[in-house]
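Practice set, problem 2.
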Amino acid sequence: MSNIMNNQIMKYCIGYFSLFCLVMLSSLDMHATHIVGGDISYQCLGDDNYEITLTIRRDCENGLPQADFDDPVSIGVFDPVFGNLLTKYGSFGQIFIPFSEADTLHETIVSDCGFIGSQVCVEETTYKTVVKLPYRPRGLILAHQRCCRNITLNNIVDPLATGSTYYIEVTPEALTECNSSPSFDDWADLYICANQDLSFSLSATDIDGDSLVYRLCTPSTGADASDPMPQPPSPPPYGDVQFSFPFTLDNMMGGVPLQINSETGQLTANPNLVGQYLIGVCVDEYRNGKLMSSVRRDFEYNVRVCSVGPEASYVVDPPYCGTSEVSFENTSTDSDSYIWYFDYPSTDPAFTSTEVNPTFNFPSSGLYNVRLEAKRTIDGCVSSFSNVIAVSTTELDAEIESNITKCDGNTVTLELSSPTIDNDPVFDVISYHWTIEQDGTITTLSGQSIDVDILSDMPVEVSLTVTSSSGCFDTEILNITNSGENYNANFTSTFIDCKEGGFVIEFNDISENTPLTTTAWNWTIVDNGNTIISDQQSFEAILIDPRSATALLEITLSNGCKTDLFLDNLAVSDFPVIDFDVEVASCDNTELIMSFSDSSDHGSLIPVSFDWTIVSDSGSTINLSGSDVSQAYIPGEILDINLSVTYNNGCIISTDKNDIDINNVITPTSFVNELKNCN
């Protein structure tokens, strides 16, 4: 083959190889633009065992889907002085840790829509393993490298070609004393607002209780587009990223520079430039003045012009009782399109709506998770709001039952209970709230049944509010004017017989106060100036004039309460009521024939004789017999009349009517004057 041909072939191969390399480098670049932060730490478990933890964050918004987390990830073990790979550790100087879904945030960390611009999206995974790290006089370095950083970074030179190294030195003292490095407590926020004060605690915890000193530090570079995932990583020392003008370690974001409190780890700043900035923070661990370890973390701050993002919200007027139709008032802000899910997470179209303020008719009683998604279409920001509402197709009806269970002087114990139930089988009554008000004093109690002491001689108002698990409630008010009004005393008085000196009347207590029983009776009967007392439930008394007697019954109940009944006019059963009528039967020029007739109610007795005694103011006394009698009198006479009725049981009952003016008995005659003739 000629030299010319060889040269042509060589030129072709070189050109092809160059094109191939360019394509491969471009492909590697596309596969690597995703690293946004990470750190590495260790914990001594004893007996030369150490748990190594590597945390990596990737950009899931700007990074390509192909740039997934490494599986496995490689951590190199190096001599800190000479930089050589320590092949006696791990697997020939590398610690391989497989990727674990369990240690990965399955839901990406997405910023809210409180700023102008595209979303900020981060995924995070944690690699953990336990390795043996025997003592070495010079200690060792653990390092992991990956390329590349986000092309969107504003404060470093050529970020797409700049990789990252996450490393930590395990000092000889750390190996000797079984030291554990500090670990950061929280990650910084994904984005911060331009021209607003930043204050965030990037504190760390050291389980050994060593002194921690915080400082800003320059993130490390490592790996590149030609070898984005070196296994093993390159040896130390590791270089720093190069800040692009005008950014420096002393001012990594512009505006009021980022600073960190060396004692607390509190970050402060007030950035004034919108952009994406790489930040480095180191925590140095000291024990008795000796540096034990340094943990390095880098992360990205996204500085944005902040705005109010959409906020989904709605209000209803619960509870919904006795209806299945619910109206929703949309109170979302900074949004212009909506979708409602009335039984979330179900997406059944029958349970969705795109109306702004929908009214939905639920199919049955129950608890429904109602979710509203509000969207701002200009940038696609979505906010959601969910709330569980109860729908009950029945109404609640509060009921009160009351009873006096104990009396002590002027104080009584009022027993209150409620038989209220929720007739909706889906829900139950969950609370009974009582308010008892008497003489300005208010007592509040809870429970289906309660006891409360109140004054017996003053009115009391009882209010009960029952609440269902549906949220439905109802209030019932009971006014008791006398706390003893639920009790009553009652008795009967019945005519039995006649005896010498009066009439036999039977008194019988018929009070009913179930479930209480009567334990004592106190009767006081006053008849014609005489007082009769009894402590029996039933007894007989001889009364001279039952019709004008008074009777008082006071009973004592089994709960100690007392109540009474007083009658000043006895209604004596079966006792005859004697009465008669006086009329003019006939008259002539000199006298009147007066008629006297019995009009008594004899009850169950049978009269056998009627005896009349009529005394005139002229001095005459006339005795007559019979139910109907008559006698002649001169007009103008005044009569005193007594009727005595004798019955078949021997009883004699009489009545008097005095000062009867005969002239008043005469029925006046009506007449009419009529003109017959005039001459």
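Problem 2, part (b): a different protein.
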Amino acid sequence: MVKFFVRPRFVLSFLLALVVGCSPAPNIASSVPNNPAQNNSGPVEPASPALETTASNWATKKPKLDGIVSPSEWNDANRIPLTMGMYNIAGENPASHPFTLYLKNDQTHLYIAGKLEKEELDGSMGLTIESLLMDTFIILFDNNNDGIVQPGEDKKSLYIINGEPYVKDQRQLSPAEQAKGVEEDAESQNIRGNITHSSSAGGTYNFEVAIPLASGDKYDVQTRPGGKIRWNLIYFDKFNIKMQGMEIGGISGVEAENALDWGTLQLATKGSKPKTAATPKAATAPVVMAGKPLPPNNKKGDIRILAQIMNESEITDASLKFVASHSDFILVAFPMKEVVDKLRKENPKATILLFNNPYFAFGDKFWSAASQAEVNQLSQVYALRTDNNEIISYGGPIYEGMEVEQRLPMMDITNPAWQDYFTSQSRKHVDLGGFDGIFIDTLTEDIPPFALGTGGKFPRGYTAEKWKAGNYQFLRKMKQAFKGSKGKIFFNGVTRPPGASGPQPNMGMLNIADGSAIEAFSIYKSMDSSSATKKWYFEKTILQDLQQASANGKSVVMEVYGNNDDDQIRLYALCSFLMVQNDRTYFYFTRKDQAGALHWRPEWGVTLGKAKGTYQKTAQGVYVRDFAKARVLVNPTSTAMTVTVPAGYKNLHDQPVTQVGLPPYSGAILTLN
């Protein structure tokens, strides 16, 4: 689907307030692909896997914080050798650096040292903010371990400007504080340390810091020995306001705004056994029902499945027949009556919506044009432009499985003339094609990062209020255009990205529309990116957001994207959805390279029967929901479990079972004999 992970990314808006002594941690993770090694522009050393759980050793000696990482000072620390992959704003991996991390703590302080090798020194500050250039290390903490980066949470910054070292005690700022120009390091400086750079062997950065565990400052970490805290250490190479040549690396990825992606630091207690390396992931227990690949099952069950027809190669008779017979809700990107007629003939009960995107010059048939080039020409009058009249074109990640052009000029959703054209064309093609309504892609109150021009320039005349009002006005016009018809209006969507705080966005739009989509896991962030995103998927996306969005008679499509396509990942995604499934919800799972087509999975062919009630949570923490013909289980925790079930159930291999092994973040469907 052309819908992209909607996440405001106002990197430049608060960087412009940056002064010496106030080093920010912007988020560019939406530009970095899930498997960055595939995008290497040259032969670079592969980056180390992101640290998930890292242990600090008990300190038997206090280091001298002079920026010289002496072995005799740090031989009691947990020494962790890494290769830090560096990524530019386009998501490419042009370089990697050897990096050694040292961790230890005592009763009062956490001691961190680092050695970053094969790196030149960048650090200069002229008369203007545009002349700022520096390399900087940012140490980030999620003070309350809730996976959400909130105002007031702790962060530390280390860098060198004009030869002078800076070690700064900072905190996350609220949007209001950023707007007022509050400095991140305005609080008392409780951190102690030093950073140096050596010119030998291409240059080596060395830093040593002592972070108090009980400083009395409410913005500092409050974790005690034996405690755990989410954290990340990110390095910016050639940091500058224009982001030219800037690269970013991190020990747990480059995500600075989503603590769900960070690793966990375990502080030592006195007398605890020293650690010599990062703690490996716990081994998963075998799944009784998925010990081997699921057997093929091409039958249509009663799970409500969404399908998409986005590529011309999918409008063959055989493809349309399969899609219609296996799906309940179908999105079609082609305003062609013959396609709808074939789908309708095979499945009269399916809901079939015309898919289009008002943010893009998308679909030559929608414009009655002969080609995409002609569309681009016709659409220029409605184009989204910067102050210097530059047409903004989409430049974000693309869906590899879609044959349509995705690097398209963007339309000004706030332009009344464009709103009128799009709404009139939508009503015309829905009526002519016999569709049940339209699915409007990408609609959102907050400007998405791909609507910014080159260098992060905002559109001409942009304000947050104008953008929000324009999107609402557009949706109201769409509803008005379909007044008096049976056409349904869906939009994408009420998406709260992983780790985002606050209420679910765009819920006011859902009050206007007939339905929406939740695409919390998409091209930017896959559901199985980490244990934290799997946890978020169940606890926030499913149990909170999906249930809230499907209330009051609204229909909701749950879209899930995965890095992998193994049985455990898919069953976890589906079984989680089934915990709250009702007759207004639809399920969709795919990989990025398969988006836009229906790839049938065997577990979708199960017949569950009517739900007997809501889900139940066992004392172990496993969630269970019973249906007339099946029982669905979900383990949304990091601990492997074994669940006993009554006699009479069989797994998806058609084998009788009385016990089911559930590894961390897994699900199982058991059917009644």
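Answer key, part (b): The mean pLDDT is 85. The two ends are 38 Å apart (CA to CA).
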